[in-house]
Predict the 3D structure of the following.
Amino acid sequence: MSGLFDSSDFLVRARAHLKRGWPDDAFDPRARPHNGDHRLNEPLPGEAALLPAPARPAAVLAAIVLRDDDAVLLLTQRAGSLRDHSGQVAFPGGKIEPGESPLDAALREAEEEIGLTRDKIEILGCLDPYQTSTGFRVFPLVGLARPPLGLAVNRQEVDDVFETPLSFLMNAANHQRHFREWQGKRRQFYAMPYENRYIWGATAGMIRNLYERLYL
């Protein structure tokens, strides 16, 4: 993307280019999705692949809020007491329960975690499924959240909810590649540090997918 970020242009692009659903094979736990932690970590000859199987389905909501001339993305800081990914920056979301669609799960989790009710959300579309190295296949939905939001944070799951400008997140210059040792191997991932927040891993990977979908 070149030039200044334009929130109206972003919404036009989102409505035009985001997917309206996923193909049936996206839900096959044996299938290898295009997007995920493995994307930046293709195995060397003789090295085991990073992608685990079978995958456990989850869904998240990437909620966009219009603020004056900019737009922001709602993100959470997961509670430090949680067993999985404690303290990390994430989208509202979680496991897809039996009988739920990804949309049902994403909206339910957003309401349970931060009090964002489904009547406030206009779904714009969805991104590619994202496979995590911990075994989850995440189905991301992008929605427009209309103020006033009336948020109520569930402290058992979330320490904080905060806004990050899309003018920052949709600028490829801010999409850094970082490295970390994991299971004895050097793994690469996207990171988008903003002020005192460290946005990285699967969350940053899905934001990168949003950028690629709309601006490349």
User: Anything to note?
Assistant: Residues 7-25+53-165 form a domain with the Nucleoside Triphosphate Pyrophosphohydrolase fold (CATH 3.90.79.10). The first strand starts at residue 35 and ends at 36.
